[in-house]
Amino acid sequence: MHIQYDLRCSDERGACTFLQNGLHPLSSFSAIASTFHIGVIFLAGFVELGKTSFYKDNLYMAWTNWIPESNAEQIVNLCFILVGAVLYALLVGLLSSAAISYDASGRLYQQKIDELMQYLTWKRIDEETKTRVLSYFEFKYRGKYFEEQSLLEDMNNSLRMELASINCRRLIEKVPFLHRQAGDGRDEIYLGKIATALKAAYYITGDYVFHQGDSATEMYFIQSGKVNIIVNSKLVSHANEGSFFGEVALIANIPRTASIQAAVPCVLYSLSANSFGEILNEFEDIKERVELIFQDRMEKVKKEKEGKVKALGIAKFL
Predict the structure, then answer these.
(1) CA distance 68 to 235
(2) Model pTM score
(3) How far, in Å, CA of 100 to CA of 103, rounded?
(4) Which of 25, 110, 260, 308 gets the highest tally of CB atoms within 10 A of its CB?
């Protein structure tokens, strides 16, 4: 249905009358038109509400050409105006609330980036470092900012272990000495505890996870990405998605034998020796297995040292 609007202005007072013709109550545009009417009435009512003649001539709903004449009619019409204003305010509030709640994590991310930029500028950080820091945040959050640790802490242990197991089961099962199939009903509990102990770590291209000679306190799983394995400043190999490295840290207190550098942006999960030790206290079978691996590894280390000493002695003799 065609809708016509007529906005007439009086030459004497500059007051405007808003008329609407041809609006059927069942029209699909009736809700929009009503909202627009309410807004006009709300604004005009508070400007000239005290002027009775203006009110009688210009401030009325344009569904008909009826103008309130008696005091009772004016009071009733004023009540309808106030109700309309309240409904209009509620509509605006609902729309504002919807706009604020839409993509809340995206807005938090942008706030985080703005705060970070102000901090870097205040600290007078060079442009190259700024670029690396921003690349790190963009890779880690990917446009969405979540307080993951806070969200997980609000969950009970069962839900936390379930979520962690979904993300990390495939990675854990690839490590032979972490694999458990005792069939005593505790296999899933063990897996959940290991998965819950894992901590996510993010690295951009060129970042070092650790250096050769560092103290070994954690092992790592590669969820995505690729890392370079560097020994004595020489690239000797690579490790890809699904691989793990640094597992010796959970078995023996031996310095890192290689440096690990991110070849591309990587998402890693780390398992600390302390967390692993607490879990071993609950699962004696895994603890015994790790102790056997530890003894075997120590024998190999001892033989390697003896071999180096003999080689050094022979070299001096020659």
Answers:
(1) 90
(2) 0.62
(3) 8
(4) 260
